[in-house]
Amino acid sequence: MAAPRKEDVKPVILNATQVLLEKGTLGDTSLADIAKKAGVSKGTLYYHYKTKGEILFDLADRYLSEQWDDFIRWTDDEAKDTSLPRLVKYVVERDTAWAGLRMHLLCEAQAGDEVLREKLVRRYGEFHQLISSRIAQRTGVSAEFLAWLTLLVSDGIIVQEAMQNGAFDRNGFIAQSAEILKGFNK
Fold it and tell me: With contact defined as beta carbons under 8 Å apart, do 132 and 144 qualify?
């Protein structure tokens, strides 16, 4: 593999880390493993990232930025059904689509990576505000509460799937939640 050009290094590092995290945990993955998988020297890796937490956050941030942009496009599209039940279902499905990455993020933040935790809390706040504003446009119920509930449900689903709880039916739960929310429409 040819070494990536300087401007292309970060995406290569992030992609390599994502592949490694699909097979193991961040704790089991060294910066040397990431450098090797990315085809860059350890010095190049350290130039861009000092810790695995920084890499993990940038990887998650890339995904969250895409999710943010997709959510705005979707809720702004007047041809789409963006009613409250569909909106909550959309958010939960998108939030849980990258459950493995989110679980790595939550674990690292919980394990004491304070910088990562602060960045994650800030992102949760930003998503809460965006979701809350879109819910407020669609219903008279407490948008603040429902936005937090949506984010908490997403995290709960991620935890249940990480525990491989066979008694939990993700799709059934999301569908039933959407049905219940139909009663909250304007």
Answer: yes
